[in-house]
Design a protein that fits this description.
- The complex is a heterodimer of chains A (about 400) and B (about 550).
- Chain A is mostly helical and about 400 residues long.
- Chain A has a domain at about 85-335: Cytochrome-c3 Hydrogenase, chain B (Orthogonal Bundle), CATH 1.10.645.10.
- Helices cover about 45% and strands about 10% of the residues of chain A.
- Chain A has 17 helices and 8 strands.
- Chain A has helices at about 60-65, 75, 85-100, 105-135, 135-160, 180-200, 205-210, 220-225, 230-235, 240-245, 265-290, 310-315, 315-330, 370-375, 375-380, 390-395, 400-404, and strands at about 20-25, 35-40, 45-50, 165-170, 170, 335-340, 345-355, 360-365.
- Chain B folds into 3 domains: about 5-115, Ubiquitin-like (UB roll); about 160-295, Alpha-Beta Plaits, CATH 3.30.70; about 305-535, Rossmann fold, CATH 3.40.50.740.
- Helices cover about 25% and strands about 20% of the residues of chain B.
- Chain B has helices at about 20-25, 105-115, 135-145, 180-185, 215-220, 285-290, 315-325, 340-355, 385-390, 395-405, 425-430, 445, 485-495, 505-520, and strands at about 5, 10, 50, 60-70, 75-80, 85, 95-100, 160, 165-170, 190-195, 200-205, 230, 245-250, 255-265, 270-275, 305, 310, 330-335, 360-365, 410-415, 435-440, 450-455, 460-465, 470-475.
- A 7-stranded mixed beta sheet of chain B has the order 17-16-22-21-20-18-19, with helices on both faces.
- Chain B is elongated, with a radius of gyration of 29 Å.
- The two termini of chain B are about 55 Å apart.
- The chains are: A mainly alpha (about 400), B alpha+beta (about 550).
Amino acid sequence: MEPLDQELDASELELPTEPMLLNVGPAHPAMHGTVRIVMELSGEIIERCDVQVGYLHRGFEKMCERGTWTQVFPYVDRCNYVSPMLNNVGFALACEKLLGITVPERCQWYRMILGELARMSDHLTCDGAMAMELGAFTPFLWMIKGREMVWEIMEEETGARLTHSFGRVGGMAAPPTEGFKEHTRAVVKHIMSIIDEVERLLLGNRIFLDRLENVGVISAEDAISLGWTGPCLRASGVPYDVRKAHPYLKYGEVDFDVPVGSASDSFDRFMVRLAEMRQSARIIEQCLERMADKGPVNVDDPRVILPAKEEVYNSIEGTIQHFKIIMEGLKLPAGEVYSYTEGGNGELGFYLVSDGSGTPHRVRIRPPCFLITAGLERVITGQMMADVVPSFGSLNMIGGECDR
Amino acid sequence: MPSFKLDDKDIPFEPGDTIIRAAQRAGVDVPHYCWHPGLSVAANCRMCLVELMPPPGRPAMLLDVLAWDDLHQTYVPQKKPKLQPACQQAAADGMVVKSQTSEHAVRARSAVQELLLLNHPVDCPICDQAGECRLQDYWLEHQASKKRMRDEPVHKPKGVVFGPTIVYDAERCIMCTRCIRVSAELAKDPVLSMRERGNLNEITVAPGRQLDHGYTLMTEYVCPVGALTSSDFRFKARVWFLRSVRSTCVGCATGCSSFTDFDPRNQKVYRYRPRENAAVNKYWMCDDGMLDYQRIHQDRVLEARIKTEGVSDAAALDKAAELIKGAAPQKTAILLSAEHSNEDNQALLDFGKALGALQLYYTGRPQGQGDDILKSADKNPNTAGVLALSGGRAKPFADLVAALKDGKVGVLVALGSAIGNPNDAGALKDLKNLVALSSHDGPIADHAAVVLPASSWAEADGTFVNRTGLRQESDRAINPQGASRPAYRWVQELANRLSLTLSWKKVAELRALSQTAAAPSAPPPSVPGAQASTAPGANG
């Protein structure tokens, strides 16, 4: 397209020759509520832009320094609030790394299943919203229906749809419910059929493809230098997945592939997420197969695990154990630890510093979104204004995690 | 210096030291219940058992025991070393001691801890000691196992009133006998003893007696568990909500080091605890001192007053300035207080100097009973400090009474609340122009034309000089109550109204000033008082 202002001098019209400044957000639905982008437009092309984050900053890393280690779980729930279980497990694993304990096998399988379900919920939301933002409302409704089924499992297991606070240092708040395996199998099957249908609807749609293909491209080198991880990095062809590269829990024992893209565009990011959900389903099936129906979920360590209520009420030993963990908090040995897992958006890291007391000295989170959002400027500069929406959507910026 | 090895760490010791004492000095904790550094050794709790390695070339002292074999489900004969209590075992040069690294000592401690909890009631939720209880700490550190006994625990008397200050719970008691030893050794009143045997034994008061000597709260303080509780503190606060600051007891001229425990949420002080200080109080405080915190919240002057009517700070300051302006410098008198810190007194002294006031007096709380353990008869924390600050120029209250009778005093600016002899209060009644900086109601505030509410010792940092001339600092615990402010702040405000220039602006400057002012004088007498009137320079 020819630039609009080419013939301005000769024209009767006095169109502005200055670039136009356009502000979008932070309170704009396409900005997912929390990001502000100031763009310098030449016609419809973005010449320069400034991405501003921090509007959802709640200072929660600082808040962590007030309570006990266990009281951090509700805060991490509110990081990536589309897949809170992944944050719960990530934080629990970090504490356990510092304590030098490993949870029982049953708990490891359980954590993996819940985590992969959470990843599905994350990807369903992101891909669904991308489609919706391009005008395809039906796939969004279908995918959100699938997410709703995941959340029903979560509600049955944890009592809460969204903010579960279900992880515990040394285990989980409760063992799996009786119908957990059956329920999960049914839901995963249903979600797979939803994904198939969504694929059929969208991948033959010219509008959808034109809006995503070769839009929002970022090279693998740029993505790596920006610190990108997760689906966004893999869409650029880099097969880095913490679950494969540095297996934790039982990821080393299950069979799954790491889907990668090649064109590094918004479309590849969409497709990588779809493919990852299919891998999650594979992982879940293997975990369900191998998770025992009986056996302990929590470690047998009185320093970190609360005693049963009968013991608290009826024996002094139980009362003391309960008192110590609740009033003083379980104590992590003095020292520091970095522990990282594959979150919904990439490498979710927890860097903990403990002074040996029951209260965290420092809880630092490496939010995958924050680093990905740092690349947004590079992704959209030079693009059409209208392409900001799907490009931004494909990065899956989650305000809670990005701004903390 | 000779030394021994404790868990591979070299511990130096002085001849005569026990293992636990030397270890404590070196900052290594050996778990213990019954041992207390200020008391004799009882060695009855068995928590501090350690393994002594035999000297080179000598066989270990081994005991024949039966150990349970899980595999064969039977007892098998075994040998284990004879463990020794670290609180009783004298240290010897080159000795090798194993505490945490000895498998036998670790097992023995776990067993001791389990035994102590065998009949312990499920009382943590209603026990004052919870949160600072050795049983809780050591369960986690040394036992960490569940209850194995399935029988009904032995029940013993609960809520036994031992005396006016102490309530005893025999079920929680671990029979460490620390309270018995405190009564006998510190208070020199062996009123407590142990009766019965085995799991029926309990602490008891001598027949016909109550636990009522002057150091009863120390029995509660040394109690490592919740068996002895103070009737004053009982059910008042949970210790994990309290915060502590380092303070100095202002109950008498001894100036015991203490902790002030307060609740930051409601800004109330709940108790004192002794703070170890070898130069003053060792590990102890007397009952009067322990309960002296109550005065922080009792009979306080919390708003500025003109006569008996409450007024705004500004109105009171205006009135005070007017009264002071109305009198000639030679008829202006300054009354210092031995109840208040060096900072408060120095500020008022400076104010008097700026005014040109020539008459300088001091007073404080009346004399009381002393003893030869800790208590002083002088019930003021800073008599020595005041005398040193004024360079001996301050005259006792009796001289002020005489001056008042002679009509030599036009206006009196007085710090403090109490006067040395309550019978002299009548003399103040005739004084029309008394400006008082009082923290508490009392003869001075009662007869004042203007009262400015001063903060108590818990509401401002302050320095006090005790009877031996030792300067000690006491930290602020709570915010100033009501409209009160530290007395030196009132003095500053007054000086501003009178356009006087003081030689300090910040508290740090004031403190430095009080230190240099007090430095040249000779060490003050241990029981200051009457001689002060003959001190030279009163008019110079």
